[in-house]
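hey m, so remember when u said the tokens were messed up on ur end? i reran from scratch. heres the input so u can diff it against urs
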Amino acid sequence: MGRTRLLQITHDLHVGGLPRVVDTLCRTIDRSRFDVEVLCLRDVGPLGEALRSDLGIAVHRLREDGDVPDRLAFMKIARFLRGRHFDVLHTHNTEPFVEGSLGGLLARVRTLVHTDHARPFPERWFARRFDRNKRRYLFAEWLASHFAWKVVGVSDHTTEALQRYGKIASSKVETIVNGIEGDRYDLPIDRAEARRELGIPADAPVLGFASRLVEQKGLVYLFEALPAVRAAHPGVILLVAGEGNLRASLEAQARELGLTDAIRFLGVRLDVASLLKVFDLHVLPSLWEGLPMIVLESMASGCATVATAVGGVPTAITDGRTGRLVPPKDPDALARTIIELLDDDVQRRALGEAARRHFQKRFTAEIMARQYEALYLRQPLPTHG
């Protein structure tokens, strides 16, 4: 019997949490049983190029016009699928789900697995900003779910929301938590040399943020917390790794708060594993999340994290045991917790080590891949202690 032919469908493979899940699945899946390819609806990106060069995985691009809406995307997907004889489609987030399910239906692909990675309901979608377009998206996803074998949430919080707000049948829904390749984050570095390369004094406390510079990540509240942290630790440095549509406004906020000498914007970094070894403390002040990959990365590296208790973050971080949790949009609580951990090296290191142990038990790439493989083959999920 030949290998199962699997196609991952996503927006792109730029640096970010969702693309990292696709990348990790491609790298970790059992290649003796699965022949995997990727279809990007918009752009390939650096992770896609790396999959091509490192593993020889075929990464395709559906269209050349970037973010321009394409009402016939499902037809293009169907044409792409015909003749390639894929057994399984795995889609990621709304547009790939809707267009991929229709394309797969037309091309008669037997198995569709979909993963919902993160969304801002119920607080945002169903309060101030639940407009007609969002209703349309929810309806389209509900309709697409009828053609899916399983719809996966990356945390119990996400899975519950899919059922409660997306009205997706409980028989369709499974939870598979994200996983990463832990060995990539357990690496020795010369920390003093890395600090010198970044222009950081040897004795400066270092906070780190490594994610997209978008509203969801709540970085404005970390900036608001920083003056209080700086009052307690005058030499503190915040390293900001990532890009996004808020870059200019965040730089302006830093200037207004008089923090330009305390905040370093590093842009997109492909060496996050090394950066995490430079951080004394990783901070993620998100407003909503699925299960953020950067939290798993910090856990794998043994770097203690302060994060907001939103979405699936408490799936990974138990306050006071594997990290610290604070309410979202609360710069005072964020500042107090950061100061407490910068004041207490013993507590901070203990949290980092406990997080590393918890990661190894639950959040490895191998655990995630074996569970997805079971769904691709229409088998019950394996259990892991």
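this time it looks ok to me. The radius of gyration is 21 Å. if urs says something different then somethings off w ur setup not the seq
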